[in-house]
Amino acid sequence: MKTIRILTLTALLATSGFFGIARAETKPAGKDIVAVASGNGSFNTLVAALKAAGLVETLQGPGPFTVFAPTDEAFAKLPKGTVEDLLKPENKAKLVAILTYHVVAGKVMAADVKTMKAKTVNGQSLNLKVAGGAVTVNNAKVVMTDVAASNGVIHVIDTVVLPK
Is the separation of the CB atoms in 101 and 120 below 8 Å? Predict the structure, then answer.
């Protein structure tokens, strides 16, 4: 019985695109990146930050965009009070810089990811690393790939990445 479970789990992981990374098989169904994130339930902090930064319209635009989206749990890893401070109007420029550091112009699917530097919308580069079937973006692990949207794709990360 244990062998069957292991074989089933191995087969499931092998079909996920990257060994050890969940891959979403959702269809965009006309929903843009913001709508997909809003409807998910795991990106409430990200959506609130996008609103505070005035980036909702941009990410509802034609794109295409690739968004490395931190979950609510990823935002919770930041030091206490950081998110609340970033959401203040006087910190809008800093918030915009952080959020646009999570966005790459174009649609990059998991199958196209390789170890490389990817230029973000804010002008700085992310370090993408593929090793042992796992993908990292700077110090964040990609935990789900290829969440489709009508104007791009979302790859879910477990840590907020910060620009220099």
Answer: yes
**pLDDT tens profile 34-86:** 999 998 889 999 999 999 999 999 999 998 999 999 999 999 999 999 999 99
DSSP result, 110-141: GGG--SEEEE-TTS-EEEEEEETTEEEETTEE
Provide the 3-class DSSP secondary structure of residue 18: strand
CA-to-CA dists, residue 90 to 87, 95, 145, 158, angstroms: 8, 10, 34, 27
Q: Is residue 7, in this structure, part of any structural domain at all?
A: no
Q: Is residue 14 part of a domain?
A: no
- Give which of 124, 127, 132, 117 is closest to 157, Cα–Cα: 127
Domain range holding 49?
21-157
The pTM score is 0.81
Contact 28, 148 (CB under 8 A): yes
Assigned domain for 93 exists: yes
Query: Which residue has 């050890």 as its token pair?
Result: 20
Integer-rounded Cα radius of gyration of the chain: 16
Q: How many domains are contained in the chain?
A: 1
The CATH number given to whatever domain includes residue 82 is 2.30.180.10
